[in-house]
Amino acid sequence: MKIVVVGAGIVGASAAFHLTELGAEVYFVDSNTPGRATFAGAGIVCPWLSQNRDPRYEELSFAAVRYYPELIARLSTAGETGVDYDLVGGLVVADSVQQLDSVVRRLQEHLEHGVKEIGQVRVLPIGGPKELFPYLDSRLAGVHLSGAARVTGEPLRMALLNAALKAGAVQLSGTAALERSGNAVVGVRVDDEIVSAGAVIVAAGAWSADLCRPLNLRLEVEPQRGQILHLRVSEANTEALPVIVPVLSDYYLLGFHESRVVMGATRETGSGFDFRITAGGVAEVLQEGLRLAPGLNTATLAEIRVGFRPISKDGLPLLGRPWSTPGLVIATGLGRYGLTVGPFAGLLAAKLALGEATEINVAGFEPDRNSAE
């Protein structure tokens, strides 16, 4: 069966890879538009403290974390060994141990329900977090969970695409438009070339709504601009730092290779596709990030990235087949958790396109659930 994947971010790349594994003839379309969320994303993999507590989302995100080691192993078997994914542990920080009581209770509840991927949970007194993340304020207390991970989005995306290409997938560059016959989607047009297909997966992130609008299919997803700062410090081994998980604050910190510390990020709903770096956005991130980690005051501001998260109206992903549009699968709307859920969502989208059973029930993620069309 021939499948076309529109979009080559983390979800589209994963869908293309898994489709080749499942024996499909695969084409994927990459417009290479600036603002891809995967490139700008922080890559914190720690869903057990997510602000989204919907049971359907928890099932999806917890399964996505369990799938990560298997995916990395499968990519390695395909010769893609450069994925930067590591269990580094996570820290939730606060001004006192008492402020962390709700965090500890939530983690303990998950552990009692068998969510062993959380790992060990430790409460750290005032000053304890700074021993693990030396740039932090020494007056902070914390909760450490050993199962949190970080992943660099772009190497993972490229590994998925490279593995798909080696397995026979075909890459198309340009702007895609959906081709239909009656109500059914039957392929895509990329510039002047038409590619027919048994099914089309739209995994175009925040651009998915525009792609589907000519079908009279209204997707409740919009771009949310995120501005994220990359700092350079003099110390080495920053890649071993635990991630500072945004629970009691909306802001995070994490280390990467090459003496980098990432600080983020703004959440600018209503931004549209405005790709500018703004003074206010940078000031906001620096103010909140340096409040947590004053030790970064002397770091070099090396890079600022901008990405557009695909945000759904109700906070749940759009994942499934629209009831009114045969031949189409939608996979978008992951919001700020794209690098947590995206690789697993791509697997689910691939199986939906081929009519195969999925690892979890995707009911409730119907992409046209809020549409009046």
CATH architecture of the domain at 86-149 and 222-312: 2-Layer Sandwich
The fraction of residues assigned to DSSP E strands is: 25-35%
Question: Mean of residue pLDDT?
Answer: 96
The termini sit apart by 29 Å
Largest sheet properties: 6 strands, mixed
Largest sheet: spatial strand order: 9-2-1-13-21-20
Unreliable spans are: none
Strand element count? 21
CATH topology name of the domain at 86-149 and 222-312, in short, is D-Amino Acid Oxidase, Chain A, domain 2
Taking all Cα atoms into account, the compactness measure Rg is 20 Å
The shape, in one word, is globular
Our count of helices gives 9
Look at the structure and name the CATH superfamily of the domain at 86-149 and 222-312.
D-Amino Acid Oxidase, subunit A, domain 2
CATH classification, class level of the domain at 86-149 and 222-312:
Alpha Beta
